[in-house]
Description:
The complex is a heterodimer.
Chain A: E1 2-10, H1 16-25, E2 38-46, E3 52-60, H2 68-74, E4 79-85, H3 90-106, E5 111-116, H4 128-136, E6 141-143, H5 152-165
Parallel strand pairs in A: 1-3, 1-4, 4-5, 5-6
Antiparallel strand pairs in A: 2-3
Chain B: H1 6-20, E1 23-27, E2 33-38, H2 54-57, E3 71-79, E4 82-91, E5 94-101, H3 103-182, H4 187-217, E6 226-229, H5 230-247, E7 251-255, E8 263-266, H6 268-284, E9 290-298, E10 301-308, H7 315-320, H8 340-350, E11 354-359, E12 365-372, H9 381-387, E13 394-398, H10 402-414, E14 418-422, H11 425-435, E15 439-443, H12 451-460, E16 467-471, H13 476-485, E17 489-492, H14 497-510
Parallel strand pairs in B: 7-9, 13-14, 13-15, 15-16, 16-17
Antiparallel strand pairs in B: 1-2, 1-5, 3-4, 4-5, 6-8, 9-10, 10-12, 11-12
The structure holds guanosine-5'-triphosphate and magnesium ion.
Amino acid sequence: MIQKKICMIGDFSVGKTSLVARFVRQSFSDKYLTTVGVKIDTKLVKSTDGHDVKLILWDIAGNDTLTTAATSYLRGSAGFLLIIDGTRLPTWESALNLREAVTKQLGEKPFIMLLNKADLTEQWEIDQELIDEKVQEGWILLKTSAKTGLNVEEAFSELATQMLKV
Amino acid sequence: MAKIPLSIAKYIRSMWMAETIMTYLHIDEQDNLIAWGGYPQHYGLDNLATGKSAIEQINFLEGLLNLPHTQVLQFMRVKEGRCAHVHIIPLDKGAWVLMFDATAEHERQQVMQQQLNELSIFSYRQSQLLQDLETAREQLVEEKNQLEQVSELKSKFISTLSHELRTPLTSIVGYTKLLDEAEQADARQANYLVSVKNNANHLLSLIDNVLDQATLEAGQVVLNPNSCELKQILSDLKSLFFHTAQDKGLVFEINIPVTTPVRVIIDELAFRQVLINLITNAIKFTEKGFVRVTINWQDERLEFAVVDSGSGMSQEAMQKIFTAFHRESTAKTLPGAGLGLAISHHLVKLMEGELTVESEIGKGSVFNGFIQAPIAHSMNLKDEQNKRSQLGATILVADDSIDIRHLMEIYLKEGGYTVSSANNGDEAIFLAQQLKPDLILMDMQMPVTNGYEAVKQLRRDNFTAPIIALSGSTLTADKNYALEVGCDHYLLKPVFSKELLETIKPFLNNA
Ligand SMILES: Nc1nc2c(ncn2[C@@H]2O[C@H](COP(=O)(O)OP(=O)(O)OP(=O)(O)O)[C@@H](O)[C@H]2O)c(=O)[nH]1
Ligand SMILES: [Mg+2]
């Protein structure tokens, strides 16, 4: 069977662990328990063209820059999810920096940007203009919610598809 | 150093492996698991099978084998509640994977990191809130500015409207007074006349109040402090209110200690207005009992109190009473625009004083205030003036309103002056040159050539006699402009006989 390693990249508290929990265990908790180091999970998905793919999910401790520890976790990744917290604009900036650092490490790899916490519309801080600009550059962006499950399955299987294309 | 026997070395190794819960995996170059040792179950690696793919059995190895250098992966959580430091060491075309327990260390780090992150999110939210507050504040300031502009426009509008009303009223009040003085009317006509007079006076004072409030709000009032006789002011007030109080069956008293200085320097008009407003108010809200005014002077301060036994007011009403256009609810049926107290409060402040109120429903009210009032060194100005004679002086009256012209003529002739009149600026210039009057009374708002232009022209032509401006405008700017172009004094309409004569007298004496 095909196995692919993917990393969850983003600033702290953007919802990386929650997205994995929603995807792997269909669960969500409002309580924040920060990740130290890395946590490994696996899940089988079907790519859009019908292949079974075993995803090895590396849920990495969040940070606004790429730490040395994170650099070593990255090795061997076939792709990554770049996650921001839509209610905190600075996490968008962190994501852009992280994307650059990751690409330097891994070379160009498929990734999808997730604008998480889409359920918190009242506190939303990301202008559509910012999003449009990235779409123009060819990025794939999805509004997700680990809380409601919005676009979570889609995000992972879309990434799987992208990785299989390579 | 003594050599450690093999048995001891083995013993130490097993102790150490147990302590660190060490696990090792040996993997060949085809990525198959060749051997393992230690405690793999501790890390969730159950049922390891040698000779089979290591990557399929040990998920985290995906992508990490066959790398040229040693990989160190710290704090890897491989199983719920278990954490390891993982070392992947390439050796002999294969690799060795070593795992050491880091669960306790991970827990300590986790607590610290949690606090740091939570603090950081908290301070971000806090700064967002502050920013929101700042935005809200800016919006409020903007709205306040807009409201102030509207309020200023309103004041200007009211001021203009009041001027328009004042001019015809001046005629009405003046002629009524003259009719009254003529005493030709029979009893019935005399009654009608009293009624006309009272109502016209009331209307005039209403307009004055509105105008005063508008001017005060526009910040255009300038005080004019002068030496004045306190006792005279108070006795005027006493006769002014005596009848009204008596009609309501109220005791009306004004108390002034003997030690009070005879003359003090205050803005007499403003001070009168404050007391008139306070007393009017007190009488209005008192159905029985008394209204008492007390005056006291000390340390260059004139203190005054107006006490009544009237209906009093609530705590809430007291807080609003000095606000313009506010009226106590019980007063709905009583006349007035609710401006008197606001104006008084404002005027007292301008006179560097304070006006406060104490009251309770059903127990009457006490208005306490003070203003700055330095002692004036007494001089007998009146006698001095009277000694000199100015009888027979010629005065030129320029005003486009025939009614006002006539009224001024009557007042001036009563004062013993010779009067000529002009009905616009050009005519005034012409007559001034022909007649060489001793003084000109010049209306500022006239058609053709207005008063300002006429005065300018006259001063250019070396006309040196005093010119007194007559105007309906309370705006300081208008007054200043009149003085700037060459007027010697500025009289505000409506002008009555006494004020007019007293104003022009010193100018003719000096001449
Ligand atoms: N409302 C809402 N809350 C979310 C969502 N995703 C995550 N959260 C909350 O956000 C907080 C952080 O979530 P985590 O999943 O721990 O974030 P993380 O990116 O793993 O954080 P680190 O491990 O510190 O890097 C938690 O309190 C979650 O409950 C979401 O989609 N909607
Ligand atoms: Mg996490």
